[in-house]
């Protein structure tokens, strides 16, 4: 029987789980892969018991050295970060004819194109299923399962931390800061939460999905990003009154810049019902119409499932271009237009004075924005009031210009929030 | 550039759509597949315009002749039925070294093992993604996407007609007969609805999923089947009162017979929210935890998406065992135990007489069945009343025996309905 020798660089929660399954479920995996999967080397910052026997497994002090060993077929990179050791290891492993499996979304988002070229030149596989949406086979679903489709839209809940926070805010009425602090205490969110709550993590994943969906060179810089820090419990409440929930969605559409931003979606849609730390990816295309897949977007088990599926693919002899097509045929993503959702939710805080409403509506009219509905909620006498509009279908640029104009008015207190209302998810 | 020659046998709604896309979207598919996909021959009962040009495409009077032509690489079988022309064509095409793509679930459920052996012996591909859940890549998701998992459970809404009927009954309170008649009038259900409403179609699909999930030889006969004819609007109402919806679920679990049956599932679960003609497949396993995929389970576009994905797989050089593993390594499914859901819903109609309730509860007690809750609803004075129980966790065999015993009582009018309450979906 064929044997495949594997090295794992990085034994954190995911690396440890991948190693444990390779060692402890070897017979089951052998039957699945049609090949014996041997864990021959690992590299980690420290040696300690991680629930598998190190017998016959060599420990490399220097992860980079794994790229040069003759007895390794697949290097599994689980070190993290887009630069440094991870990048060097992947690049050198591919150059020396090894397959690379990685869960490193930052690395792929920033260097995926270069690495894909490197893989093709050396006739090796570069696989990163685990980089997008954890246990959901989001890449294989798109690249193989929906390969015949003209993809109109890929949109998803790609960050479990943000979805957990927004779900908690929706279900309990608590504030962003309050829920974030609790999530940090429970270990659901990092002490430095920027990567999650500012949309960077979701943007890495979206860049990968967009490149595959549209046959484009991956370009992280093209992703438009907004996080959830400025979503208040008031917004969640207004959205609910209007029949919507607020979700952080990553959306890639043909002829538009991929965009990560909080959006309003109708309460009765499938995506609106994806709660807590779950991820979900929805694909719209022709001829398939619409497919939605949901599951755990992070965690040791789900991520290990994706890493191991890539290993099994390679062992089975499955060969695929990392982004679905030869790197040389991938197009430059030179589109500058942001995703245009059509309708918008606008929320501002204004002084409760005579004539304010008239001025606001005049500014909206002057920017060709037609109001669909309006809500006003006061906190107390003479205090500023929340003013919320939903608009009829309009252009992103008009909304931005109107917000800029409104921000210049003295009666406006604080930032103006403009969120798209996604109709077609 | 590589060229792949394709013949389509059967130009119904799906075959026509596959042909149209092959002809009209040839450039897009070429880029996706990395090969030119040429439709070179078709076979159908009659020649007529189907929205694509027949220039350069030969029309075969006899579908069977497609198996023997030297200029064909892939035969797409969309004729239907498990025996006859479809079987002969697939068998002979594989024997003559051609790849076969089919959407024919009955054929695969009954002859999948023989055909898989035939494909392997002739080093050709047998692909049937379109046979399960239409546009949802349910097979690729399981076979490739979740290949590393020890699958605990695969459960799904696999028949859109049944789900449409049950959804309508739930949302409008109408009867099965009434909704079925309307569905037939609208073309959602066949004039002869048995294939759908008696669970046969779902059982075909479940047999395929079970074989792949557990590495077993496909055996349609092992699937336990119950349809939705005996689900009354009363049951739907009782279920709602108890916090459940009724769905026809196909469930394959390790160490249990695959089973298609109406089940109660909690209203707040994801599967409970899959409404109308949608299909959904949920996979539970280790280490992935739980993945759910939903989309259109039938229709020309979604089914064509799956057929074309198989064609593209073949054109890309992707080779897979039809059931995920070599046919010779597939196990005999010799398990006899039905899926045991644990708790049950029992509904009977009884005469409204003194002592009836005491006798019923005695019979349940004598079969070791512990009652969790009871509902009684009378229609009018002296008329039989509905009696509904939910039980604590029990064995399928006990429930069956209790129902048999109850059926022998003179105060019981009509059939007794016993439905499992699925907790873990």
Describe the structure.
The structure is a homodimer of 425-residue chains. With 425 residues, the first copy, chain A, is α/β, with parallel strands linked by helices. Chain A has 3 domains: 3-131 and 303-329, NAD(P)-binding Rossmann-like Domain (Rossmann fold), CATH 3.40.50.720; 138-297, Dihydrodipicolinate Reductase, domain 2 (2-Layer Sandwich); 343-422, Alpha-Beta Plaits (2-Layer Sandwich). Chain A has 13 helices and 16 strands. Chain A has helices at residues 13-24, 26-33, 85-95, 105-121, 138-145, 160-172, 176-186, 194-197, 200-214, 233-241, 300-316, 356-366, 396-407, and strands at 3-9, 36-43, 58-60, 74-77, 99-102, 126-127, 150-157, 224-225, 244-253, 259-266, 278-286, 289-296, 343-350, 371-378, 385-391, 412-422. In chain A, strands 7, 8, 9, 10, 11, 12, 13, 14, 15 and 16 form a 10-stranded mixed beta sheet that branches. In chain A, strand 5 (99-102), helix 4 (105-121) and strand 6 (126-127) form a beta-alpha-beta unit. In chain A, helix 4 runs parallel beside helix 9 (200-214). The radius of gyration of chain A is 24 Å and the shape is elongated. Chain A starts with a strand and ends with a strand. The interface between A and B is large, with 58 and 58 residues. Strand 12 of chain A pairs antiparallel with strand 12 of chain B, so a sheet runs across the interface.
